[in-house]
Design a protein that fits this description.
This protein is mostly helical and 71 residues long. It has four helices and no strands.
Length: 71
């Protein structure tokens, strides 16, 4: 389940978060749940889409961004 405190930070967030795993990847699914629980308990959890955006922002350099900003 999505942590209650997350709804204020990310409005419109779904009540449950999902990840897809192969049928025979029970260990991977359990690891995903364990990692999510640890991050929730540490209040460091964020939605998957936010993690992807953060990763994208960290790869963007000023040299990549600047020509777009000039337009």
């Amino acid at each position: 389940m999505t942590p209650v405190w997350a709804f204020m930070r990310w409005p419109g967030l779904g009540e449950r978060q999902y990840a897809n795993f192969d049928v025979d990847d029970e260990d991977g699914a359990r690891a995903w749940l364990r990692e999510a629980k640890l991050r929730i308990d540490a209040r460091a959890w964020q939605p998957e889409r936010e993690e992807q955006c953060e990763e994208e922002r960290s790869r963007l350099t000023f040299g990549d961004y600047f020509p777009t900003w000039l337009e």
